[in-house]
Design brief:
The complex is a heterodimer. Chain A is an alpha+beta fold. Chain A folds into 2 domains: 1-78; 87-203, Ribosomal protein S6/Translation elongation factor EF1B (Alpha-Beta Plaits, 2-Layer Sandwich). Chain A is built from 6 helices and 5 strands, in the order H-H-H-E-E-H-E-H-E-H-E. The chains are: A alpha+beta, B alpha+beta.
């Protein structure tokens, strides 16, 4: 073969083959896998940079808004919006409201709480605990009922929303009623039935079964 | 290692009976390097020295110009599928025609035999062969040892046949006219032989190599001998189908004096066109360069043949033999492999280079991104530290406010609502009952569907029912007016609410329990109260959230 092709030809072929091998191996076994890997790394890094920028922007926006929001947040905190709906505390507040509203009687029952879906709360790793409250009120005057509702709205911890209210005049003033009032044993002239929802925002815990309840 | 089929630089070995003439063909021209006598003692070494050193190892083209080269015109019947491969048939016929000549080849002429009665259609082939001579072996041996590529092995008359056609075309007075049907080319080679080539329609028809006086200075004698040889050739032409009506060009390479003499000698009475010209004039016409010429070279045509053949990409009739193939095929394969490897190397090199560049660019970007991330991370940590210094969970602050807003948007400010209703009722009217009921999303939506197809219409959050009773003795018209007026006042006071009077006094309603005692009917003391009802729907979800 060397006699026919000559040493020079064979050397040239060998050099070309070696160059091909070197270029081929470097392109396909090193540069291209490296490029793919680094490309992926770059995309990930750019994603992280982008996320970080967004986070910083978010923080700056939060700082701008924070001054205005802090007062609202403090008010919510003071109102017990972050309380875990202590039944004992609720009982005391209800007693206080009943006394201050001058209703004849108010029978309140608080059912067991349930977690309500709320995307805003989840953002801060919290959830909304909602407990239904039913109150049957007997009063001499519908104004006492309104006062009761007002006091509930003002002083009951957390957020109270109305589900159902029914206020009905039971009887008119007559001699019998007036005499009963005079004897400091007033009969109920107005009956009201309130169905309310009590909501507070509490941290998400691993044990979500501990959600209160009772009367 | 040159690319022999692409390069016009070649070493041309002109094999003649007297000697081996070595020409160096390059773009700048063709030069006779040396003529090596076959009988030279160190022939091979001398030739090797010429090919490798003097000619630079360029690809070798071997042109056979010896007297002993055989041609035969053969018919090859046009074979159908039943007769097998045409190339195999030609090969078989060639073997039969020249069984003792190892170097042989065939090529088809444009001339064909048409199918006629009792005669099959056939192609006409020129079969050519060269004997396995000592000169041939010496040449091949030296070519093999030179390690240069073998560009081809051809027969000078065949390879120059297209040169005749080109010359004839360019010599024609009418530039648009075709070349003459017949063309006779006469040229003396430096070795002494007079080579005559006759073409018909541009394809070789006849060739002769005859001795002629080497005393080119004796113009009269030279012209006379050339004329005699030309006459002999012309006498053969009739056998090849020439008739006086056919166009004929006679081109003789000769210097001015000999040319003039020949013009007077050559018989052109049968209508032939005679052209005599020096070799360099012919080269000019053919647009080829001859290199350095010496005195007397104007008479020699061998350099013209060499220059013409050297610039060809492929030969008309490349001669085949085991000896030639043993040299050319591996070298051509090596050359093809080298070209392929060179191309693939270039491609892979380019790819490596571009990928490397791209990788370098990505690395730079990555470095920049990493630095940017580090800087942003520092900034983020600073902001976080500021945030933690505040003592508040900013996320919780915002989320709780938003959550509370969301809950608040679905509820009613009942005290304000009662206040508005109370203002509307005034001092004279008395409401028996008031009921407020939150509407579920589903119920509200169902209601919407039943009343309107417009799904985008905002939904009311609550439904409030007011009931007002009138004694049975009340004036219905007056009562109804009072109820309608109350409805109007409510509408005015409650913006964003829908107030509807659902029942007026004239609609009797049994609302209270009834105990009938004996005698009641007689006394006609049983009376029924009127009941009016107003429904208020609202606030609307959208209005509330705004």
């Amino acid at each position: 073969m060397i006699k026919i092709l000559g040493f020079r030809r064979i050397i040239i072929l060998a050099v070309l083959l070696a160059l091909n091998t070197v270029f081929g191996l470097s392109a396909y076994m090193y540069f291209m896998p490296q490029k793919t890997s680094k490309d992926r790394e770059l995309r990930t890094m750019r994603g992280k940079v982008s996320t970080l920028k967004a986070d910083i922007d978010g923080l700056l926006v939060e700082f701008d808004q924070l001054d205005q929001q802090l007062d609202t947040y403090k008010a919510l905190k003071d109102r017990g919006f972050f309380d875990t709906q202590s039944r004992r505390k609720a009982e005391l507040v209800l007693q206080e409201i009943q006394d201050r509203s001058s209703v004849i009687s108010a029978v309140a029952s608080i059912a067991g709480g349930e977690f309500e879906e709320n995307t805003q709360a989840i953002k801060a790793d919290h959830q909304i605990l909602k407990s239904p409250i039913q109150i049957n009120i007997e009063a001499l005057n519908d104004l006492d009922v309104y006062r009761y509702i007002y006091l509930m709205d003002e002083y009951f911890p957390g957020h109270i929303s109305i589900e159902n209210i029914s206020i009905k005049r039971e009887s008119d003033l007559n001699g019998v009623v007036l005499r009963a009032i005079a004897s400091k044993n007033p009969p109920p002239l107005v009956k009201a039935n309130l169905e309310l929802s009590w909501r507070t925002m509490i941290p998400i815990t691993t044990d979500e079964t501990n959600n209160g309840g009772g009367q | 290692m040159s690319l022999s089929f692409l390069s016009s630089s070649k070493t041309v070995l002109l094999v003649s009976d007297e000697a081996l003439h070595v020409f160096s063909a390059a773009p700048k021209g063709v030069d006779l390097v040396d003529s090596v006598d076959w009988a030279l003692e160190d022939f091979e070494a001398h030739l090797l020295n010429l090919v490798v050193k003097k000619c630079g190892g360029k690809p070798i083209l071997i042109l056979n110009d010896m007297v002993e080269q055989h041609y035969r015109k053969e018919k090859v019947i046009k074979s159908g599928a039943l007769f097998g491969d045409k190339a195999a048939m030609v090969r078989r016929k060639l073997n039969v025609a020249f069984p003792n000549y190892p170097v042989r080849a065939a090529f088809p002429l444009r001339e064909k035999i048409a199918k006629a009665e009792g005669q099959l259609a056939a192609d006409i082939y020129i079969f050519a062969a060269v004997p396995n001579s000592t000169q041939f072996n010496q040449t091949m041996s030296a070519a093999s040892k030179s390690m240069a590529s073998i560009a081809g092995f051809g027969l000078l008359p065949v390879e120059s046949s297209d040169m005749l056609k080109a010359l004839s075309e360019r010599l024609s007075k009418d530039k648009k006219a075709k070349a003459a049907k017949w063309c006779v080319f006469v040229g003396q080679h430096k070795g002494g032989g007079l080579r005559q080539i006759v073409t018909k329609n541009g394809e070789i028809a006849l060739t002769r190599m005859t001795p002629v006086t080497e005393d080119v200075g004796n113009h009269q004698k030279w012209a006379s001998e050339v004329n005699d040889e030309l006459k002999s050739t012309m006498s053969y032409l009739a056998r090849f189908g020439y008739v006086p009506d056919d166009t004929l060009d006679i081109i003789i390479i000769a210097d001015q004096t000999s040319g003039d003499l020949l013009t007077g000698l050559v018989d052109t009475s049968h209508g032939a066109n005679l052209f005599t010209m020096a070799s360099y004039d012919a080269a000019k016409l053919l647009n080829i360069r001859l290199g350095r010429l010496q005195e007397g070279d104007a008479n020699y045509a061998d350099v013209l043949h060499v220059a013409w053949s050297a610039r060809k990409g492929s030969l008309i009739l490349p001669m085949k033999s085991a000896q030639v193939d043993a040299l050319t095929k591996p070298r051509q394969a090596a050359m093809a492999a080298s070209v392929l490897l060179l191309l693939s190397g270039a491609f892979l090199g380019y790819q490596s280079f571009t990928t490397f560049n791209s990788l370098a660019s990505i690395n730079n970007d990555l470095e920049a991104s990493t630095n940017q991330r580090a800087q942003l991370d520092v900034q983020y940590q600073k902001e976080l530290a500021k945030k933690s210094e505040l003592g508040f969970d900013v996320k919780l602050v915002q989320a709780s406010i938003n959550a509370e807003k969301e809950i608040e948007s679905k509820t009613i400010d009942v005290i304000d609502f009662f206040n508005s209703v109370g203002t509307a009722i005034g001092k004279d009217l008395r409401v028996d009952s008031i009921g407020i009921k939150a509407l579920d999303d589903d119920v509200a939506e169902q209601g919407m569907r039943s009343f309107s197809n417009d799904r985008n219409k905002p939904k009311p959050l609550y439904e409030t029912t007011l009931q007002i009773s009138y004694p049975s003795t009340a004036d219905i018209e007056k009562g109804n007016t009072e109820v309608r007026d109350l409805g109007d006042r409510l509408s005015k006071n409650l913006k964003g609410y829908d107030v509807k009077i659902t029942k007026l006094l004239k609609d009797y309603e049994y609302t209270e329990g009834l105990i009938v005692e004996t005698g009641d009917l007689k006394t006609n003391d049983l009376a029924q109260d009127f009941l009016a009802e107003i429904k208020i729907e609202g606030p609307l979800m959208e209005a509330k959230t705004q």
